[in-house]
Design a protein that fits this description.
The protein is α/β, with parallel strands linked by helices. Helices cover 29% and strands 33% of the residues. The chain has five helices and nine strands, in the order βαβαββαβαββββα. It binds 1-O-pyrophosphono-5-O-phosphono-alpha-D-ribofuranose, manganese (II) ion and magnesium ion.
C-alpha cells in the first residue's frame, strides 16, 4: 500500500498477484470461446486497468500457445457514481458514428465491477440497437448485494462481499485508482475523500 493511502484502506481484499493470475485465466477462456475478430471495449474509467492487463494477457497467449485472435480496441466513458452510491442516472458517451461501427462485430465489453448492474444493463440496451453480431461481457468483479438487478456477466473474475472496494482503477470520488491491490476503503478514507 503506498504511504499516501495507508490509513485510508482497512484491508487488502485481492492482492495484485492474485488479480493477475485470474486475468491470465480469463484471457484463456475468452480466447478459447471466441469466434473471429473481437472488438474489445474498455468501460472508462474503472475498466482501464483490467482492460490493459487482459489485452496484454491475450497477446501473450498468442505468443505462447499460438491461440490467436485479432483485436480492435474501443473506449466508452460511462459514469453514474458519486460518493459510494450510484446516482441511478447513467451517462454513456458514444457518438452515433462510433455505434454504427459496431454493426456485425463481436463485442467484448470489459468492466471493473458489476454492483447494482444498472450501468451494464443501460449500456447493453444502447449497444444492442446497433446490431452487433454478438456481445459478451467480462467484469473483473461482481458484488453480492441485494441491490443487484440480477444481471450476471459472461466472464467474472471474482465475486466479492457487499463492501465498498477501491484500487486497480476502482475509485472513490476519483481517488484510489492508483493502487495495485483491490482493497476495502476505511472510514478514514471515506471521510478524507468525501465530496
Ligand atoms: C462504477 C464501476 C462500474 C459501475 C458499477 O463506475 O466502474 O462501471 O460503477 O455500478 P452499477 O453496477 O451499480 O451500475 P462509475 O460510475 O463510478 O464511473 P468510473 O468507472 O469512471 O469510476
Ligand atoms: Mn465504471
Ligand atoms: Mg467510479
Amino acid at each position: 500500500i503506498p504511504s499516501h493511502y495507508e490509513k485510508d484502506v482497512s484491508s487488502i481484499l485481492i492482492p495484485h498477484g492474485v488479480i493477475m493470475d485470474r486475468v491470465n485465466k480469463l484471457a484463456r477462456l475468452i480466447v478459447d470461446e471466441s469466434n473471429g475478430p473481437l472488438v474489445v471495449c474498455c468501460i472508462l474509467k474503472g475498466g482501464h486497468q483490467y482492460f490493459a492487463d487482459l489485452v496484454n494477457a491475450i497477446k501473450k497467449l498468442t505468443k505462447k500457445s499460438g491461440l490467436s485472435v485479432p483485436l480492435s480496441l474501443e473506449f466508452i466513458r460511462v459514469k453514474s457514481y458519486h460518493n459510494d452510491s450510484s446516482s441511478g442516472d447513467v451517462k454513456v458517451s458514444l457518438t452515433e458514428e462510433e455505434c454504427k461501427d459496431f454493426e456485425g462485430k463481436n463485442l467484448l465489453i470489459v468492466e471493473d465491477i458489476i454492483d447494482t448492474g444498472a450501468t451494464m444493463v443501460k449500456l447493453l440496451n444502447k449497444l444492442e440497437q446497433y446490431k452487433p453480431k454478438s456481445i459478451k461481457v467480462t467484469s473483473l468483479l461482481i458484488k453480492k448485494t441485494d441491490r443487484s438487478n440480477g444481471y450476471i456477466p459472461d466472464y467474472v473474475g471474482f465475486a466479492i462481499p457487499d463492501a465498498f472496494v477501491v484500487g486497480y482503477a476502482l475509485d472513490y470520488n476519483e481517488y484510489f485508482r492508483d493502487l495495485d491491490h483491490i482493497c476495502v476503503i476505511s472510514e478514514h478514507g471515506k471521510e478524507r475523500y468525501a465530496l
